[in-house]
Structure formats: structure tokens, C-alpha cells
Amino acid sequence: MKLKVCGMKYPDNILKIAELQPDYLGFIFYEKSKRNFEGIIPELPKSIKKVGVFVNEYIEILVSLVEEYKLNVVQLHGDESVEYVEKLKEYLPKVEIIKVFGIKDEFNFEILKPYEELVDFFLFDTKGEERGGNGVTFNWKVLENYKSTKPFFLSGGIGLEQAKELMSFLRRQESKFCYALDVNSKFETKPGLKSVEKIQQFKKLVITNEVK
To answer: What's the whole-model pTM score?
Structure first.
């Protein structure tokens, strides 16, 4: 199971979280977000992939930010169309693409089909007022209806208090294609500032199962 820590903002905090060796660090490029990233991303280990999170951004701006920050992954958190993703792949053939879909108590998985051949991963987040970072989980039982073989990231209000429930979910059939867990607001002391201790504890408990 991979770990993505999203909504990184402060250079010193970024370096401290990087020492815990998550697989992905997410940087939000969306001015309306409290975690909007500006400035310089410090040098990170090559094992950590840098994810740029975008919401209905102009492709030209997105591509320029990918190049400026040397991002490895693009996460599309808006209403980006199939045509948008096709065009993006032409511009960034070597960059992985994650397409986000919001879920609450039900979801029509048929809408994923046109994206399947274009994206590397889906990400399922809680449908809420904000474009992510709502701090609320969705009903994971909905994923029993996931028929695709495309790997996905599980997101939305995941915190230490969900550890037991998560470990139970990861033993069930609907988690078969769950590739990574995406954490954000439940590990913050303020927007964009992550608790090193809490992330370390979560990683040991859920990702590496070091704590029995």
C-alpha cells in the first residue's frame, strides 16, 4: 500500500514529512484553496513523486507549472473532460495522471469508462463543499460496485481514527485495486502544516503494519 500526503505548503514541514518516506507528496495549485502552494519545493528524495493538484486549470498554465516544479504526477480535481485529458497527455506524455471523482453515498461508475485508457489512476474523494480537504469520509461500501481494474487512490477524511476501519477495508474484495491512501486535513495543525508524529504513527499502523 502506497501513501500520499497531500496539501503540503511549508518548506521545513515538507522536508520533515519527506524524511518519513511517503510515496507521494501533493502540492495544490488552486488559488481558492487554503493549501494553495507558492514558492519553492525543496529538494526531495527521488523515491518521492511530486504531485501537482489542479482544478479546471488552463492546460498551458498547468503544463508550465509541471515544468517549473518538475512534477511527476498531475492530479485533476475538477470537472476535466475526456478531451482535456487527451490533450494533456499530448503535452505531458511522461507525466502520470490521476483523475479525481467525488463520492458520497452512491456513485455511477459508468462515468469512469471513457477515462480508463487515458489516466494512470483514479482517486475517490468525499463529495463536499470544498474541492478536497473536507475532513469527511465517504461510504466505502460504494466501492463494492467498482468493476474496473484501474488502480485507485482512496481519499477523503482519512485519519488515525479510521485506522481499524481502514485495515478492515483493505482485507475486503472492494479494496483489491486500492493502490494508495491519500491523507491531508486530518493530519494538520493548520491548513498545509502536517503533524510529523501523526503521519509517522499512521504509516506504521496502516501502511507497514509495524504496530500490532
So the answer is: 0.94
Within 13 Å of residue 173, how many CA atoms lie on the same side as its CB?
6
**pLDDT score at 104:** 85
* Distance (Å, whole) CA 186 – CA 198: 9
Mean pLDDT confidence for 142-168: 94
Helix 59-69, helix 82-91: angle, nearest 10: 40
C-alpha of 96 from chain center: 12
How far is residue 68's CA from residue 39's CA, in Å, rounded to a whole number? 11
- Specify whether the backbone of 133 is left (phi greater than 0), alpha (psi in -120 to 50) or beta: left
CA 98 to chain centre: 8
Go through 127-139 and write b for each residue having 16 or more CB atoms within 10 A of its CB, e for each that does not.
ebeebbbbbbbbe
Q: What is the pairing mode between strands 193-194 and 188-190?
A: antiparallel
User: Which amino acid makes up residue 39?
Assistant: G
User: Is 161 exposed, middle or buried (CB count within 10 Å of its CB: 0-12, 13-18, 19+)?
Assistant: exposed
Q: What are the structural domains, with CATH classification, of the chain?
A: 2-207 (3.20.20.70)
At a CB cut-off of 8 Å and minimum separation 6, what does 51 contact? 4, 6, 24, 25, 26, 27, 71, 72, 73, 74, 75, 98
